[in-house]
Structures are given as structure tokens and as C-alpha cells.
Amino acid sequence: MDRLRIKGKCRLEGRLRVGGAKNAALPAMAACLLTDQPVALENVPEVRDIGTMGRLLSHLQVKVEHPGTRSWRLEALDVPEPEAPYDLVKRMRASVLCLGPLVARFGRARVSLPGGCAIGARPIDMHIAGLRRLGVEIRLEHGYVEARCAHLRGAQFPFPGVSVTGPENLMMAATLARGETVLRNCAAEPEVSDLADLLRRMGAHIEGDGSDVIHIQGVEQLGGAEHSILPDRIVAGTFLMAGAITGGRVGVEGCRPADLISTTDLLERCGCRIERAENSLLLEAQEPLQAHDVRTAPHPGFPTDLQAQYMALMTQARGSAIITETIFENRFMHVAELQRMGADIRVTGRHAVVRGPTPLEGTKLMATDLRASASLVLAGLAASGETWVDRVYHIDRGYESIEGTLAGLGAAIERLPGPPYPSA
Ligand code: UD1
Questions:
Q1: Which residues line ligand 1 (CB under 6 A)?
Q2: Is 264 found in the same domain as 171?
Q3: Residues 6 or more apart whose Cβ sits within 8 Å of residue 133
Q4: Which residue range is the domain that position 49 belongs to?
Q5: Which atom of ligand 1 is nearest to the CA of 128?
Q6: Model-level pTM?
């Protein structure tokens, strides 16, 4: 298992180019199951979760080609055994995105229940309730969702809570349903709209994505398409915060500043200077950073996927910041590790109060999930001495060589192969 070694206190300066969004690329890959024509995707990030989705599609007998960096060609001529097994689903919850497309096109699907994960229970009850509303007969047996339906029929479905992959799954299924489907209380995340763009290129009739009500008029069949995945706003936000935590100056090229408004506004309130251009952002940290409260919320609110990184930043800001996590019930695993570095953080329920600035000291740390790990890397950049982050595979799920990008900005960071730790 690889680990990262970071020598802190280097000011970051420079520019990076952000790749495509993993959370848009995963549903886009699943969408290939809706047609027997090839779907060609560009700007797909070279991260572990994408490899896992590629393996799942290969398992389903999809012809999976990866002809060049960041480009994939997927052709689902037939799926004789529409089953997503536990071994693959447990690695990545987003595997459940195969459920809607499989049952819509092939009339049946068997997908393992993903179970909980480090950041909470994360059920898929809304995906299941929505598919049932489209006429799918669903049984839960032996840890699997068994779905059957000869022809899905359009229906109204109000999501009882705001979800991202829920509407994505339902939207894909509804493209091949008979009649109109209206999904209410949908997440307005840019990744949902990126999927809708791809589906429209494939011939689907979809309106309203980007708002909370999505209308889908079912069609007989979909065709192939080419599509370039939108830039990753979470990766962009992570590197802006890396710049801020080191008192640096970091430019992010190839992003969509409009998708990052809640993040850049917040960083400005903390005292950073932000320059916005059409496809790029430039952050210049001003001393001292000011603490500012934040609540995570569905888009266009502040994303839960940047909460951990922002908490690392607040350890270096003057004052106290109350960080409220409203999306997941257990997304503060990074707190204990940040405390071990010397951070002053107190958690009560869904609130964390961070008092700063506190000097952080490098130590050996354990990554627990994707974004928590990114926050530990940020803390390591600000800490004195050496920080070791173990279990880097969590970070590799969503960042393309985080150490390479940070080193390009002047960080002293390197990846080293697994145990044992050198004696302290
Ligand atoms: C997606 C993102 C993830 C992000 C999250 C919230 C992908 C691949 N992942 O995850 O990075 O952190 O949105 O922005 O796009 N819930 C239910 N029942 C359901 C579905 C969800 O109770 O059927 C709950 C979840 O437990 C959670 C909340 O709803 O508390 C939001 O979850 P959801 O938006 O569905 O998360 P994902 O789509 O899995």
C-alpha cells in the first residue's frame, strides 16, 4: 500500500489544469448500457474509480476500450448476464448506476446492495422506490437487488430527499420508458446536467436538469454519442484550498468558475483574493486567513465533498469556524487525525467547531475515505516537519496523481511504496 510523505511549510505557487469530473464520468460510463451503439467519452479522469467502473462494464460483456489517456470507447452490444456482483459494487457505490440502465434496456438486472461506507449508511432506498414507480418489480434477496420489468412506464416521482446518483439512475431508466417521467426534488449538481447532455446526444428527450424538476419523454431506443466530461469542481476546489493553506498563489485552468461559486465566495470571505476568467481561477492567499462558518448543502450550496479540505484550512485561520455537515451523518473521520496533528476541533453531532490558527505538527496519518484523505494532505502541507499519509488508494479513487500536481506547484511531496514505516 502506497503512502505519501509531505515536508510541510512550502508555499505553493503555479498553475495546474484540472481534468474531468469522476462523478460525471461514472454515470456517463453506465449510460453506455442503454444502447448497442458505441459511446465515446473524452476527458475521463485517470483515477481508480473509473478503472473499477471499466471492470464492471467488462464483467457485463461490454466492449471496453481505453484508446488513449482520458478517452474511453464503450459498446454494449448485448449483456447476457445483467449482474453487478458484490466484489465490484463494494469497491464503489456508484456501481449502482448500472441498475437503471440495465433494467430499462434488458428488462432485468441483479445488482448487489452496496451496504454502508465510512461516511454513513448511504442506503439506495430512493433509487429502488423510484424504479418501482416506473413499474419495475424489485425484490431484495441475498444482498442483491433483483429487478424485472418488460417495459418501464413513465411516472411522477418526487424524491423524498435530495440525492445525486438517485436522479441519475432514474433519469437513465426513464429515457427508455413508455411516456413521460417527471422527477421532482432532484439535485441540481452540474454532474447531473452533464449526464443529461450525454443522454440528449444519444437521442433522449430530457428537460429541466440543473433545476429540481426533470422531465423525461421516453423513446424507443437510444444511439451512440461522443461526449467530453465536464471539469472536476471538487478537484479544482481542493487545489485552491491547497494554495490558501500554504499562503500561496495557485491558478486552476480548464475549470468552470460558475460551478465553484459557493467555494470561491467562501474563500474570499476568508480573505483570499480570487481572479475569475472564463475557464480559470487564480487564488492568492492574503495573511492572515479569517475563519468563516459553512454548512454543506446540495448545489449551488457548499459541497460536502469539500468539507474535509475546508476544515483543514480553518485550522490555519484566525477565529472560530462552525462547520455543519448536512448531507452525510458521519463525515468527520478526518477530525481525529487533524487533532493528532494539533488541531483544535470539537464535534457535536453534525457541527464541528474549529479554532485557529493552531500550529500543526507532521505525523503518521491514516486515510479513511477519499475526501478525508485530501484534507490530511492539505494539513500536511501546512504542518511543520514530515507528514506521512497511509492508504493512499483512497485518494487515488478521485485524484490523478495528487502528489505530481502538488509537486508541480512547489510542494515537497512524494509517493513511497508500502510498509513498514521507517522507525521514528
Ligand atoms: C454523490 C457523489 C458524492 C457526494 C454526494 C453528495 C457520485 C458518484 N457521488 O453520492 O461524491 O458526496 O453525491 O453530494 O456522484 N440517500 C438515501 N437514500 C438513497 C440515496 C441517498 O437516504 O436512496 C441519502 C444518503 O445516505 C445521503 C444523502 O441521501 O445522506 C445524499 O446522498 P446522495 O446524493 O445520493 O449521494 P451519492 O449520490 O451516493
A1: 23, 26, 93-94, 120-127, 161, 163-166, 191, 304-305, 327-328
A2: no
A3: 155, 156, 157
A4: 22-228
A5: 23
A6: 0.96
